[in-house]
Backbone:
């Protein structure tokens, strides 16, 4: 047996099992009697144990054996799990991660006081456990570094096949006469360029990750922080299917960890306090991702007590020397943005949960470095929302692609309410349609509409003010389909028109201009 090869397989597979194990254990903490879930947890630990035994990694296999002993009992219903038992298993999984990392670095995993402590706890019955750590001292894990992404095998096969086509394409240039060379060469070049654009589309997808995968990195840190601070917190995701550049998300890892830490330390109330104020005992942090025009908008909101406005007023009086009249006259946005100042702090003492001495100004600087903007909204007892807007250098969105005159255009699928067939646009209908032909400078004699796209109307900002809704429909010459587009910035020339959100590349290499319907 090739030991080195098998060791590489063990490190790779164990890393995947341990990542999934953390997620499953967090689920198990909220669903203690789910025997099916405990069966899955047992299976992952057993798989790691089997590979470790084959490599004579006794420390790893021994710890796995102790952990799966409890899981067997929970799975069979002969023992009842509790929160302390789940914490011991979480600690065991974290230790396994360190032991596997030692193997990857070429060192043999060895016994340690931490291993002895966890093994001794696993030898007891779960209902006899005595809590081993004090609140605020339990180690809080950081979100893992983004060092790999999952790639579907079919995508790799597509890349290999397309690369082979491009290599062979050079040999397909036919012998041409002098009369044929101009048109023939032009057709060959067009074909070649379409192949290259298609290859670029496929390769660029390797750099993308779903936002959901990024948010899942924070599941365990949020759980650890909530446990330390006696909170009950659930992390939710909206728009997780949006795929964005992995490099951008890696730069946001630490700023978002700090936002989540602040939400738990300063925002989410204790369960009893929440109950007294009519809220659910479990606090909620929602991470939302959306694409608006050529920007990525990431929103982190919580349903906690809101930003401490008294602390802001105290800072403005004491540090900035402002009067109560000046403070009351400040715009709401400017008032809340006070927390982004370098010397601002609402905490009496620095601790791990209040940000390790790092202020909100660090988050603001990180976002500014990425050429983004940060907006803050907060209401007492209702919660806080941070809205981060970033230029989107690369993304994959699903869009309705269509033709108008000589142009291939597209609109994000999420913005389209319906597609209706239309033989032609009558004069009566014209007043209800947005005239894209005129906007694009297409001659009236070339207009032949076959379909009408109806857009979703955004909610009104103020229902008390009656306004005439803008046209929500426009006619198109032909609908090509609903398909994924790799969207890149529109560039300076197209950006000047105020009509386009980016340039989309289709899987076959063809280009489509993405309309910015909000601006239109």
Residues:
């Amino acid at each position: 047996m090739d030991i080195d090869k098998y060791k590489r397989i063990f490190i790779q597979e164990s890393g995947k099992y341990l990542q999934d194990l953390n997620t499953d254990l967090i689920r198990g903490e909220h669903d203690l009697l789910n025997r099916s879930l405990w069966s899955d947890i047992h299976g992952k630990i057993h798989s790691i144990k089997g590979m470790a035994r084959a490599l004579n990694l006794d420390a790893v296999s021994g710890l796995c054996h102790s952990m799966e002993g409890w899981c067997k009992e929970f799975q069979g219903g002969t023992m009842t799990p509790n929160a302390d038992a789940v914490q011991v298993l979480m600690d065991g999984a974290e230790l396994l991660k360190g032991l596997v990392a030692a193997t990857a670095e070429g060192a043999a995993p060895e016994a340690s006081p931490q291993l002895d402590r966890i093994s001794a706890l696993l030898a007891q019955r779960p209902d006899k456990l005595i809590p081993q750590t004090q609140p605020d001292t339990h180690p809080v894990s950081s979100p893992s570094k983004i060092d790999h992404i999952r790639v579907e095998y079919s995508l790799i096969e597509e890349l290999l096949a397309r690369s082979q086509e491009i290599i062979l394409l050079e040999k397909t240039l036919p012998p041409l006469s002098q009369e044929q060379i101009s048109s023939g060469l032009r057709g060959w070049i067009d074909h070649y360029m379409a192949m290259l654009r298609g290859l670029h589309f496929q390769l660029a997808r390797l750099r993308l990750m779903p936002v959901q995968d990024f948010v899942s990195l924070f599941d365990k840190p949020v759980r650890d922080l909530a446990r330390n601070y006696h909170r009950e917190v659930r992390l939710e995701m909206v728009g997780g299917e949006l795929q964005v550049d992995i490099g951008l998300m890696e730069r946001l890892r630490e700023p978002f960890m700090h936002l989540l830490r602040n939400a738990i330390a300063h925002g989410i109330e204790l369960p009893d306090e929440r109950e007294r104020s009519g809220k659910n005992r479990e606090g909620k942090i929602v991470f939302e991702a959306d694409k608006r025009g050529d920007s990525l908008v990431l929103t982190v909101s919580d349903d906690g007590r809101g930003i401490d406005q008294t602390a802001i007023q105290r800072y403005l009086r004491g540090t900035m020397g402002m009067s109560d009249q000046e403070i009351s006259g400040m715009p709401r946005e400017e008032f809340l943005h006070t927390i982004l100042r370098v010397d601002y702090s609402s905490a009496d003492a620095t601790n791990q949960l209040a940000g390790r001495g790092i202020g909100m100004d660090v988050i603001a600087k990180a976002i500014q470095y990425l050429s983004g903007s940060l907006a803050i909204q907060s209401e007492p007892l209702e919660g806080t929302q941070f809205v981060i807007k970033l230029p989107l250098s690369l993304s994959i969105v699903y869009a309705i692609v269509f033709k108008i005159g000589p142009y291939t255009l597209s609109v994000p699928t999420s913005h389209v309410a319906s597609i209706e067939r239309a033989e032609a646009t009558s004069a009566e209908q014209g007043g209800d349609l947005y005239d894209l032909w005129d906007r694009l400078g297409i001659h009236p004699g070339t207009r032949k509409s076959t379909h009408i796209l109806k857009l979703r109307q955004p909610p009104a900002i103020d229902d008390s003010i009656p306004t005439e809704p803008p046209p929500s429909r426009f006619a198109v010459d032909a609908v090509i389909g609903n398909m994924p587009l790799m969207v890149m910035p529109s560039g300076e020339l197209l950006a000047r028109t105020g009509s386009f959100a980016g340039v989309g590349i289709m899987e076959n290499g063809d280009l489509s201009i993405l309309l910015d319907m909000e601006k239109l």
Q: What stands out?
A: Residues 133-137, 348-357, 459-466 have pLDDT under 50 and may be disordered. The first helix runs from residue 3 to 30. The chain has three domains: 3-128, 209-391, 395-515.
